[in-house]
Amino acid sequence: TNKGKYSLFQLLVTDNFGRGRPVLFAWTRKEFKRDVVWILDCFRQIMEDTSKTESFIMDCAQAEIAAVKLTHRQAHIVLCSFHVCRAFCRKLTM
């Protein structure tokens, strides 16, 4: 989140050599499911086909998880261990 309270949505892909490559950046005012669906639909239009997407690694944001389940039903969702641990620690210290 920046000073304007916009969140950065970043999409990376892994190439055939296992290296991550950033392919999409999008600013969102709110992290709502409809906004993430729109971003993923735009990405699908740009790439013409994202049906072979095997997995998404993401933080534990429910809107992102719901959007991926809607737009890429066949893909596996893997939660990022860093973000899960950070969220867990924040809950412990509340």
TrEMBL record:
Chain ranges of the ZSWIM1/3 RNaseH-like domain: 1-77
For this protein, the record's Pfam families field holds: ZSWIM1-3_RNaseH-like
Q: What protein is this chain from?
A: ZSWIM1/3 RNaseH-like domain-containing protein
Matching PANTHER family = SWIM-TYPE DOMAIN-CONTAINING PROTEIN
Signal peptide interval: none
